[in-house]
Amino acid sequence: MPIENIPEIYFDNKHQPQDIFVYDFKMSSDVVKSKVNLSMNMFSFLQVGKKQVHFANTSMAVNNKQSLLLKKGNWLWTELLDIDATYYCKLFFFSEKKLIDFLSKYTNDVKPYREDVPYFVIENDDYLAAFITSLSSNTFTNHSFSDALLVLKFEEIMLYLLNKYGSSFEYYLHSLISKEVSPFKSIVESNVHSNLKLEEIAFLCNMSLSTFKRHFTNEYNEPPGKWLQDKRLQKAKDLLLGGDLKASDIYLDIGYNNLSNFSVAFKNKFGISPTDI
């Protein structure tokens, strides 16, 4: 059984890799089983037929009264037809970057990770039925504002499901973010020893200062100002202990505007003046 790389197999000359992507999936054979390598998180809105999805440690069966939000990764996907019908499914892909942007925009706190579940089951209702009908790959490839429309559709379904399922859906969305170093932590930790101000680091994270402070405190269990100051002062101490540099050589790089403020902060933390090292 060959491995299908999704959504890459759906790209053509008009569909280059992007952060949000819609695909209308149809088939007429009785049963199709696929090995799937899913490189983006994906909504599967099933309209006609049945679906069985096998993951590493569980499986899930759905019909057209339900939809699935599937986490990127490897799984087995079996599609079954209703009698004398064409299997019809709309697939709505989104990147981790778009998910992080959405969570930063609409949620206040970083939620704790729950058990690593590869899917979230969505019970279809009238609103979801109308939303699914509005999705068409043709609309989003032949429209001059297709990218903007896709972002709006993505935010629409996410906001509706947040309202419908509350914290359980929000927890699940946070579990979709890679558990290696998050983009947020990567930006913060790559600027630990820079002379950037909090406002500037928040800007690099695409956040307001207040949102940045909330995210930072949830990630590091400490206010960002104190955390960064401690890290930078420790770096300054290490540089001074090397014996080649003086306080006047390093205070700007450590994030202080003048030598006096640096010396006071250094002495408050370590109990000695930087000139005494």
Can you offer a commentary on this structure?
The protein is of the alpha+beta class and 277 residues long. It contains eleven helices and ten strands. It has helices spanning 96-106, 126-134, 137-141, 146-165, 167-175, 183-190, 198-204, 209-220, 224-241, 247-250, 259-270, and strands at residues 3-6, 20-27, 31-38, 41-48, 50-54, 59-62, 66-70, 73-80, 87-94, 119-123. 23% of the residues are buried. The model has no long low-confidence stretch (mean pLDDT 84).
Give the structure's gist in a few sentences:
The chain is of the alpha+beta class and 277 residues long. The chain is built from 11 helices and 10 strands. The chain has 2 domains: 3-175, Jelly Rolls (Sandwich); 180-277, Orthogonal Bundle (Arc Repressor Mutant, subunit A), CATH 1.10.10.60.
How many domains, in number, for the residues? 2
Largest sheet: 5 strands, mixed
Tell me what portion of residues adopts beta-strand conformation: 15-25%
Write down the CATH topology of the largest domain.
Jelly Rolls
What's the CATH first level of the largest domain? Mainly Beta
State the helical fraction.
Answer: 40-55%
What's the SSE pattern? EEEEEEEEEHEHHHHHHHHHH
Q: How confident overall, as mean pLDDT?
A: 84
> How many beta-strand segments?
10
Alpha-carbon distance between the two ends: 67 Å
Radius of gyration: 25 Å
CATH architecture label of the largest domain: Sandwich
Task: Describe the strand arrangement of the main beta sheet, using strand numbers.
Answer: 1-3-8-5-6
Class by alpha and beta content:
alpha+beta
Low-confidence region ranges: none
Shape: elongated
Helices, by number, come to 11
GO molecular function, one term: sequence-specific DNA binding
Organism: Bizionia saleffrena
Domain HTH araC/xylS-type: 182-277
Keywords: DNA-binding, Transcription, Transcription regulation
